[in-house]
Every structure is written in C-alpha cells, then in structure tokens.
Amino acid sequence: MNKKKIAAILITGALAISIIGGTFAWFTASDSVTNPFSTGTTDDSNNPNSGVKVQEEFKLEDAKTITPGTEINKDVQAKNTSSYDEFIRVDFKIVWKDKDGKEVTKVTVGGTEYTLDNKLVELKTKNISTDGTQGTWVLDSTDGKYYYIGKVATESYTNTLLDSVKLSPLAGNEYKNLKFDVVVTAEAIQSSNGAYKDWASDNIKTYLGSEEAKAAFAPTDVAEPNGSN
Asked: Full-prediction pTM beyond 0.70?
C-alpha cells in the first residue's frame, strides 16, 4: 500500500471519529413557570402589629373636668386595616394618674391612704351577648377581653362595643385632683386555617369555630366617628 493510500485511510478514519464524537442539533423544547406569592398586607408595613385600628367618637374637652355621676360619650369600634378577614378582640384598662401625670394606684388625703378603685370608672358597653350571636361581643371571663363574633372583612369594622364612660357617684373626695385614662387595646388574628384555636380560650373557640366557614359579617352600626352620638 503506497503512502497516498495510507494517508487517505488515516484521514477517513479521523473524519469518522470526529463525526461520532460530535454534537447533534436535535429539535428540543423547554418551559418554565414562576408563580409569585405575597403574604397578607396591612396599613403599616413597618409595624409588625398593624392590621387593626381602634376607631372612636370621643371629645377630649368633654372629659377635662369630670365629676362623679357625669357620663361622657365614648363610642368605640375596631376596624380591619389588613388585606385579609380577621377575628377581633378588645381589652379595656383603667390607669389612674396624679395631677402631674404620674401613674398611681393609691393616694393619701388628710393623712389617710386610699386605694383607687378601677370599678368606679363605669364603662357602658353595648351589643353584648352570652350566646355568641353574630355581630355581638362576648366577654371572656378567663382573660377579661371582649371577643367580636363574626369575621371582619378588609376595611370593614365591628359593631360598637363601648358607648360611654362615667365616674361613679360613689367616688369620694379622695378622687379629686386625679386623672384617669381608659386604654382601649384592639387585637386581631386571621380568621382562616384555625388560627383562633391558639388565640382564644375554650369559652370562645366554639363561637369563632362556627364563624370561620361563614362569610364576613357586615356591621349594622354606623362607622365611628359619625357625630350623631
């Protein structure tokens, strides 16, 4: 075999190897889908506790010189400021203060020490029930909080809970020169996926459990403040 034939055979073998080891351009296809998810939003992204707001009708000037037996209008509701339905509860706290604004629980008058009684600040509530009727509030004896029966939709609100505040006629001279705050705290939790079970006591769970599958309850009271009370 001459040199030219040998060279041709070597070249042919090299081409065959090159083809076997090469890459074919097949027809191929692919697909990808990205599904974005967003968590529920609230009115204030910088506040982890946002999502519920106390709305009220209350005139501060009416409460500046309160005397025993005087009743001051104070209408309180709670509003859902989140993007999801909520269950809502409200708590009231009475805080006594001296003339300088310092919190006190006792005062001394004429050499006698008196313990200030929170029960002398009478809170007149409304829309209260003991059977868990939709659109009412149920007082839980275990934590002292009022639970609203019914889901509250986004941008909606509860029926009125507090109607007025009165200093009892039983408040004596030891209550002169004092101030008191009625601190209203509203708390809310999502009304889905059984979240209420970790939030409410056994006394309330039955009511909220029956509400979870229902549509949000539309309030029958006018939103506060409305200037009509």
From this structure: yes
